[in-house]
Amino acid sequence: MNTLASRLDQARPYALGLFRIVIGLLFACHGAASLFGVLGGAMGGGTVPTGTWPGWYAAVIQLVAGVLVLAGLGTRTAALIASGSMAYAYFKVHQPEGLFPLQNGGDGAALFCWAFLLLVFTGPGALALDRLFGARGAEAGQPSEEKRATVAA
């Protein structure tokens, strides 16, 4: 008998994959806006001057890591770098303005930081290029996420 919980468990890799895709897309859009002036540009228009610290480097990380997470290619590594960059942004830029994200405008940085950290531990889920290329899990002889779920059940 299929309970609601077992059906939701079967959909977990796909829900995680969709989460990864949306988070990666949103992050890449922030980088593209800062680097190329698209989607409204950086901070109300324009672009971040090339090579400026930390804005330009943050935008490059946002674009590259966002695209990698979106595609599911090197997801854990890209998500770790993205999470670290957002932690830096929160504590260096936002936190000095106030204790809580609602006070200091750091909601986005905090949410991106924790969302990417979640992806570091969960992996890419379904619909990832890593799975298509048989990256790391298959090379190390580790069972896939679906096989582990079947064994655990």
Rounded average pLDDT: 86
Detail the poorly predicted runs: 138-142, 149-153
What amount of the residues lies in strands? under 5%
* Euclidean distance between termini CA atoms: 13 Å
Count up the helices: 7
The counted number of beta strands is 0
Radius of gyration: 18 Å
**Helical coverage, percent range:** 55-70%
Overall spatial form: globular
Q: Which class do the helix and strand fractions yield? A: mainly alpha
Task: Spell the H/E element sequence.
Answer: HHHHHHH
Instruction: Sketch the major β-sheet.
Output: none
Concise synopsis of the structure shown:
By secondary structure, the chain is mostly helical.
